[in-house]
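Re: the multi-chain job from yesterday

Posting the exact lines I submitted so nobody has to dig through the queue logs.
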Amino acid sequence: MPLSLRLRAAILSVVLLFAFLATWELSINDGSEVAGMSPEYAALMGATAKGASAMPGPLKVGKEIWGHISNPFYDAGPNDKGIGIQLGYSIARVFVGFFLAMLTAVPLGFLIGMSPLFYRALDPFIQLMKPVSPLAWMPLALYTIQDSTISSIFVIFICSVWPMLINTAFGVAGVRSEWLNVAKTLEVGQLRTALRVILPAAAPTIMTGMRISISIAWLVIVAAEMLVGGTGIGYFLWNEWNNLSITNIIAAIFFIGIIGMILDLGLSQMSKLVTYQE
Amino acid sequence: MTMDTLISIEDLKRTFPSPDGGEDVAVFEDLWFKVDKGEFVCLIGHSGCGKTTLLNILAGLDAPTSGGVIVDHEEVIGTSLDRAVVFQGHALMPWMSVMANIAFAVKSRYPDWSKENIEKHCQKYIDLVHLGGAENKKPAQLSGGMKQRVGIARAMAIEPKIMLLDEPFSALDALTRGSLQDELLSICYGTSQTVFMITHDIDEAMLLADKIVLMTNGPRAKVCEIVENTMPRNRTRNDMHRHPHYYPIRNHLIEFLVNRSAQFEAELSSKDYDPRHPPVTRPGLTKPSAAVEAALTDTGADTGTPETAVQASA
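And the result, structure tokens for all chains:
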């Protein structure tokens, strides 16, 4: 009997993973290349004192990751905190910035979606602001807000606001006119129409915007924290680069990926709740 | 105006901008007719004569260019819970269950009612359209006929003075359409509900309507005449065709749809037509006019070409 597609895909995934890990393990420099170098040059090239490359093998990275997972929340001073604490800072910033953006974008998107006047009036601003890299706002934010944490939250806010705003406006403008006519013939008030008809009708589109926003926010927070420093996974990553700990950098990349996946999965579960079938 | 008139359509006209930028085009004008309390009125006309526009004006979703609609001695301005609409595409909210869809309407009508009261009221109408057991289903889980039943239940649940139906069964298959027509008939007669329905199906109109308003082709459509259905109200889909009035009425309507609706301008000049009082005819009682008879025998009921019909009626 042929195996189900799902099972076959899972088997292939595992095979690919092991193939990747094996290639990685086999291709790393075990130190033989630097045997003939002067120790100073070898150190300059990133080789360790023992002569081996700083690029770790998968086993070493796996051990490091396990070390982080088994003690995620220790705090041994500003430059030595557990990965859990660093990730926690980043997630908190993303959530605060994201929710502020939601509070702004959803009502504003409603207004734009319902009013052709506002749509046309605000469109040039949105088109101008949307393509600006969120990090371009960072110096301006640091200058005006003068607080690195709030500045990075502001950058998250700016990058998450556009997809939510545009999707909300799009969803609201696209609500089927027959549903609005039903509400009209039933003399339903504007607020009740907005909450009971337009919001549920546009909810799937709004949720798509939120999913895009949270993904972008998670991408941007790493870069933002690299710039402003202090705490967070981005700062951790940059700090480990300064320490030349490639093992920790790879571990951080792994954790960033895992958290990003969880955030997206969470929002896709939430969007299932509001999806309807016509 | 008699005491029993519920809706009076007076000198109604609706224009739309011309597509080629010329003068505005009147889709219909000089429209006058009345619907009495408890009456079931069908309006028949070809596509493009403004049937849906007229219904939207009656519902308050659209406004006439001139003239007006009087419902229960008040001019129609905007929508009202006194006029419930059953939309062509059922227009149920897909994220709400059957019960929630109807409750949404009932809550709009009776905002002060308790939750139990609303549910009880909804249940009554769900049972009335034979949807018991489907209360918690979403519209996507229902067949087309069941969806339209929910649409009818939603309209009836707000206990309107008049129900406006816009070709409610046109998207259904013939069997489902038939059983829904029977149900609608028994519900409306049981409750003396006043109904105004748009259709292009002659048999549907003959089964359901007490009065059939014939509208000529647009643009500048008018009411050609009003046909009284002289078959008794207890007619059914299965035995209606045995009634002696059935074929005279049916032939009259087909003759209208096939020939007269397009040639009304020519017909107008040859007779005394007052748009304020469109002629009322009872084809079931009178022998068809010689012209109609000739047209029918000459061309066959369904295949008449306009050319022969002009000759026949001239």
